[in-house]
Design goal:
Keywords: Kinase, Transcription, Transcription regulation, Transferase. Pfam families: ANTAR (PF03861), GAF_2 (PF13185). GO terms for molecular function: kinase activity; RNA binding. This protein is mainly alpha-helical and about 200 residues long. The chain has two domains: about 110 residues, Beta-Lactamase; about 60 residues, Winged helix-like DNA-binding domain superfamily/Winged helix DNA-binding domain (Arc Repressor Mutant, subunit A, Orthogonal Bundle), CATH 1.10.10.10. The chain contains six helices and three strands. The longest helix has about 50 residues.
């Protein structure tokens, strides 16, 4: 949680956070953040959900006077949260993400906080998108390798071409209403083509 981030440090350098700023979250801070997020999920309301589903950014200056999310604000106030700033990170297909900033001070986040937060959220979106693409690519490569192994098994056992082996996998997938990669995995693991059992 941010206590204060705009003061001048004791050594006189401008813009350096004061001693009241904690750059790393303590275990208690992390627990409060996780509980606050959980409360939004449980109540189905809160600034993060509005940011993710309806708006790009939602600022909650004083949680104790907020009326938009009564079930959320009552429980979050008990945890010591006094203000929040929430950003939509990405909306791609059904994947939703949000970035939340919390403070135990009222009115802790102003226009500058929102501007910096939007910049950070934009960078986070790019990083998350890249990670998702990398994950999808890794899955596709793994699936291609698995299907290649399954084709190789069929080619060796039945003395058929790669195209014929792939056609057998597709047919087994269609006949059993099973994903192609599951058919291939079963064949690689057991040596049996599940769609051909009992024939």
């Amino acid at each position: 949680m941010v206590d204060d981030g705009g003061d001048t440090a004791g050594d006189g350098r401008q813009g350096w956070p004061s001693s009241r700023y904690r750059g790393r979250a303590s275990d208690d801070d992390l627990a409060v953040k996780l509980q606050t997020d959980r409360i939004q999920c449980e109540t189905g309301q809160g600034p993060c959900l509005d940011a993710v589903y309806d708006q790009r950014t939602v600022r909650l200056p004083d949680l104790t006077e907020e009326e938009r999310w009564p079930a959320f604000t009552e429980r979050a106030a008990e945890l010591g949260v006094r203000s929040m700033l929430s950003f939509q990170l990405y909306v791609q297909n059904d994947n939703l993400g949000g970035l939340n900033l919390y403070s135990c001070r009222k009115n802790a986040f102003g226009d500058e906080s929102e501007h910096v937060g939007l910049l950070f959220a934009t960078h986070a979106e790019v990083a998350m998108s890249g990670a998702q693409q990398e994950e999808h690519l890794a899955r596709a490569v793994a699936m291609r390798d698995l299907i290649g192994q399954a084709k190789g098994i069929l080619m060796e056992c039945h003395r058929i071409t790669a195209e014929q082996a792939f056609a057998l996998l597709v047919r087994a997938s269609q006949q059993t209403n099973t994903k192609l990669d599951d058919i291939a995995r079963y064949l690689v693991d057991t040596g049996e083509l599940s769609g051909r059992r009992g024939r």
